[in-house]
Every structure is written in C-alpha cells, then in structure tokens.
Design goal:
By secondary structure, the protein is mostly beta strands. Helix content is 0%, strand content 50%. The strands form 2 sheets. Strands 2, 4, 5, 6, 9, 10 and 11 form a 7-stranded mixed β-sheet that branches.
C-alpha cells in the first residue's frame, strides 16, 4: 500500500507562484510513475502532469510552460512548481501514484486546495 500526502496549497493572486509537494510512504517509490491531477468545482478530474521513474515528463496543454514537475526518489517526494498562476488553475490538486499497465493512479492523496483570485 502507498500513502500520499500533499502540501503547499493556498490562496494566491494571479501571476504568483506556488510549489506543491507530495510525500509518499509505503511501496517502492522509485518504481511508480507519479502524477498531479486537479478537480475544479463542477468539473471532472484532469491530469495536470506526470513523471516516470526515468524522469520522463508530460503536461496538460493548459499548464505547459508554467508548471514543472520533478521528483526526488531519496526523499520519496514529487513536486509541482506552479508559476504565473491564473484563476483557471483554481482547483483541488491531487497527487497520484501509477503502477505499470495502469491508465490512472492506483493511489491518491487527500488533495490540497489551490485558489487563485484577486
């Protein structure tokens, strides 16, 4: 079993930055693809970014060039650096861990709220 705990969310103004962290316990962290997902009120959960154990990354078009995902296997932590935040980025952000042959996360964190507002 894998337990994921997100942190770093908060209330910021447009144009500001946040750095989210996801700390993992249990499992063999380096073998999982890790991802960040978000869900805004009234909308479906969407993939924001993923990073494999080989450090291959992917990003949703809406965040490309603004967000950067990274991982530190020694610290069993994945990060999401969020720059130039926009009101449209407002959502609950979830960390997920994906196993091989899985199209989506097998484990989820509890989520952290990100609100971008003037």
């Amino acid at each position: 079993q894998v337990t994921l705990v997100e942190s770093g969310g908060g209330l910021v103004q447009p144009g500001e930055s946040l750095r989210l962290s996801c700390a993992a316990s249990g499992g063999i962290f380096s073998l999982y693809t890790m991802g960040w997902y978000r869900q805004a009120p009234g909308k479906q959960r969407e993939r924001v970014s993923t990073i494999t154990n080989g450090a291959t990354t992917s990003y949703a078009d809406s965040v490309k060039g603004r967000f950067t995902i990274s991982r530190d296997n020694a610290k069993r932590t994945v990060y999401l650096q969020m720059n130039n935040l926009e009101p449209e980025d407002t959502a609950v952000y979830y960390c997920g861990a994906l196993r091989g042959s899985s199209s989506g996360p097998s484990y989820w964190g509890q989520g952290t709220q990100v609100t971008v507002s003037s």
